[in-house]
């Protein structure tokens, strides 16, 4: 993107009567995109530690063979709730938080297009999260059939299933409303001269993600609604005994579930596409090919869902189609990895904390991508299916992939948000602790899976003991090193060296033309973009 | 409540409302269509 910005970017609107409110009412009734962005990010951080605590319960139990700490029923609740919390309560809200904070500033808009809807989108979340967590204290416990909620197993759940489904409905509604807001903002509120192909990559990736959300979240809502009626109202959408088809649920779930992976990873790509050029001191290589690759990935993500179901026994032609289409995703993804590498090529590189997380993302996300291609091969997927190899694969995509992008993005924009520089030395220690421990945590799981250890079990054969112990040690180091991130963020919010408007060495984009911290209202007068 | 919305011209405000309703309507239609399609297929 080559954008030359001019201007009266933003003023500090001390004269404006619309300043921040005071106390609790500021946060309850705010319609300001920066406040709502902050709320999303804080909520995501809280959920990271709740979901992380569940992960540590799982890894503590798996530290050695036999049953140590929890009974199998509770273990199953932990695996299911960990996934639901991390996907719907942590990583998605985190990226919506980034979108809220950054998109209006990046496109030169004064706020989101639908500010009151924005407030509502956020405030649905804490209620939904509380309802979901409360199922753990209900008779029979929380959801325990995995986050995929496959019938017929899930239909044997207790009454808490109704609460879990209601929570999923609310979380989905929040996502749809947020997505509508983002699309409407980007399509209607861009500053004069900010054409679509001048938008920063982060905005592009979010625009495409928002369209994906609107396409697939209602499908999940439909699927879980049918589960609800099957369980409580006597229908037989998915009950074979009543003429229904349990495998049909898997098709519906994964028509949502696979694009969901890209709903999580595309905004990560966007953040990485902002960080790497800034610390390479070069424009992003192949901007338009990045846009087309993002759109290509989004399209392909909608036609590959049944690669999650190779073992259900589908026709050979179906297996061939889903195998080939899945492998095709490697092409636009490789375009992206190539372009990030080419951006760094002969750049004037420096490795501040955001760049360290971005480079780690490049390497470690690629590991998750490569194991994904392995699993796309239908005949060999029969060996990997439902093993720890899958667990290793998607955690490489989601943790050193999506989570590292989110953490890198937080370090990148913290000075813009707070007006202070974070502690670079602590940031680097946090990075190295995270980068090393995340590999100790997840890499051995490849070996466990290939050796045949099934996922979602609290106990295992003794031959798997060594790598499980290593993985658990990595989990505890990784988990506790994230406390350091909280300390660094709190320290940065409370004070530190003053950040300049540009923060970094001549980064590109409208957000760097406003002072740090960004004024409560930016771009009351649209900036000129050439 | 929000300075930004007060200053919009009515045409832009109308366009924003229409696009939001269109997207919301689409989401609702997908939700209903999937339940009907599943009922027919199951």
Keywords:
heterodimer, A: 530 residues, mainly alpha, Cytochrome C Oxidase, Chain A, 15 helices, 66% helix, globular, B: 2 helices
Structure report:
- The complex is a heterodimer of chains A (530) and B (42).
- Chain A is mainly alpha-helical and 530 residues long.
- The N and C termini of chain A lie close together (11 Å).
- Chain A is globular, with a radius of gyration of 23 Å.
- Chain A has helices at 23-29, 33-61, 72-107, 115-134, 160-188, 201-232, 246-280, 287-301, 316-328, 330-344, 353-376, 378-384, 388-418, 424-450, 465-494; strands at residues 5-6, 528-529.
- In chain A, strands 1-2 form a two-stranded antiparallel ribbon.
- Chain A has a single domain, classed as Cytochrome C Oxidase, Chain A (Up-down Bundle).
- The model of chain A is unreliable at 6-16 (pLDDT under 50).
- Chain B has 42 residues and is an all-alpha fold.
- Chain B has one domain.
- Chain B is 86% helix and 0% strand.
- Chain B has 2 helices and no strands.
- Chain B has helices at 3-6, 10-41.
- The radius of gyration of chain B is 17 Å and the shape is rod-shaped.
- The model of chain B has no long low-confidence stretch (mean pLDDT 85).
- The chains are: A mainly alpha (530), B mainly alpha (42).
- The A-B interface holds A 13, 16-18, 29, 31-32, 109-111, 113-117, 176, 179-181, 183-184, 187-189, 214-215, 217-219, 221-223, 225-226, 236-238, 243-245, 248, 252, 521, 524 and B 1-5, 7, 12, 15-16, 19-20, 23-24, 26-28, 30-32, 34-35, 38-39, 41-42.
């Amino acid at each position: 993107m080559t954008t030359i910005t001019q201007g009266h970017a933003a003023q500090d609107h001390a004269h404006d009567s619309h300043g921040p409110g005071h106390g609790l009412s500021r946060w309850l009734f705010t319609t300001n995109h920066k406040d709502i962005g902050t709320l999303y990010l804080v909520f995501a951080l809280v959920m990271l530690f709740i979901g992380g605590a569940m992960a540590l319960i799982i890894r503590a139990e798996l530290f050695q063979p036999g049953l140590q700490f929890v009974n199998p029923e509770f273990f199953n609740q932990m695996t299911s709730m960990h996934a639901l919390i991390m996907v719907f309560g942590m990583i998605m809200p985190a990226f919506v938080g980034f979108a809220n904070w950054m998109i209006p500033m990046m496109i030169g808009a004064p706020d989101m297009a639908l500010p009151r809807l924005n407030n509502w989108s956020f405030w649905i979340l804490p209620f939904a999260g509380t309802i979901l967590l409360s199922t753990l204290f209900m008779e029979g416990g929380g959801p325990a059939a995995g986050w995929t909620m496959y019938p017929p197993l899930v239909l044997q759940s207790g009454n808490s299933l109704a609460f879990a489904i209601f929570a999923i409905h609310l979380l989905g509604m929040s996502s749809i409303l947020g997505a509508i807001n983002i699309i409407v903002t980007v399509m209607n509120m861009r500053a004069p001269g900010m054409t679509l192909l001048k938008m920063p990559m982060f905005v592009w990736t979010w625009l495409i993600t928002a369209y994906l959300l609107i396409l697939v979240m209602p499908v999940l809502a439909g699927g879980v609604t049918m589960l609800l009626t099957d369980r409580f109202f006597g229908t037989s959408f998915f009950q074979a005994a009543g003429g229904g088809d349990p495998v049909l649920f898997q098709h519906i779930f994964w028509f949502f579930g696979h694009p969901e992976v890209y709903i999580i990873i595309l905004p990560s790509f966007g953040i990485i596409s902002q960080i790497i050029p800034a610390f390479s001191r070069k424009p992003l290589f192949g901007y338009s090919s990045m846009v087309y690759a993002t759109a290509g990935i989004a399209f392909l993500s909608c036609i590959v869902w049944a690669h999650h179901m190779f073992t259900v026994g589908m026709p050979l032609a179906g297996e061939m189609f889903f195998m080939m289409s899945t492998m095709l995703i490697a092409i636009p993804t490789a375009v992206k990895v190539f372009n990030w590498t080419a951006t760094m090529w002969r750049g004037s590189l420096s490795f501040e904390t955001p760049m360290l997380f971005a480079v780690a993302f490049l390497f470690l996300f690629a590991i998750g991508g490569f194991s994904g291609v392995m699993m796309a091969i239908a005949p060999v997927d029969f060996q990997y299916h439902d093993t720890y190899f899958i667990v290793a694969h998607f955690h490489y995509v989601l943790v050193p992939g999506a989570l590292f992008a989110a953490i890198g993005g937080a370090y990148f924009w913290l000075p813009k948000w707070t007006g202070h520089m974070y502690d670079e030395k602590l940031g680097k220690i946090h990075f190295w602790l995270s980068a090393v421990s995340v590999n100790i945590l997840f890499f051995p799981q490849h070996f466990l899976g290939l050796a045949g250890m099934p996922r979602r079990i609290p106990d295992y054969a003794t031959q798997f003991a060594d790598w499980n112990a290593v993985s658990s040690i990595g989990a505890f180091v990784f988990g506790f090193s994230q406390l350091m991130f909280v300390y660094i963020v709190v320290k940065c919010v409370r004070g530190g060296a003053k950040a300049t408007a540009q923060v970094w060495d001549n980064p590109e984009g409208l957000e760097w033309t406003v002072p740090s911290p960004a004024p409560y209202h930016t771009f009351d007068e649209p900036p000129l973009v050439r | 409540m929000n300075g930004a919305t007060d200053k919009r011209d009515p045409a832009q405000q109308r366009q924003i409302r229409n696009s939001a309703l269109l997207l919301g309507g689409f989401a609702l239609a997908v939700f209903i269509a999937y339940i009907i399609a599943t009922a027919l297929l199951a």
